[in-house]
Amino acid sequence: MPASRPRLLPWPGANGQPCYLVTDGGANSRLAKLADEMEDVQLNTGSDLLKHARELLRTRYVSARELRFLSHRLAEALHDALRVAESRGMRIPTADAGREDPAEPRS
Fold this sequence. Notes:
- Helices cover 52% and strands 4% of the residues.
- The chain is mostly helical.
């Protein structure tokens, strides 16, 4: 059985570069399951942060420091969500996956 396609992991490498997983175990490997759990944590954290941001912005007075902090956390959550979306998008089978080469004649 060939190795699966590289999966973008939800955490960066040592120097901030993208980190990929290639495994024969596919979605059942330990690291793939850990990555799934981390994606869930990241998305839930982003959702909680968005709720907090909405509540904070409904208040009459919010300091520049609070808004700056909120902006940084929202940017981090957006970055995480975009990485999760990219990773999941890369794993969606293409329309022609599993089909024969259209250039080859059928028998």
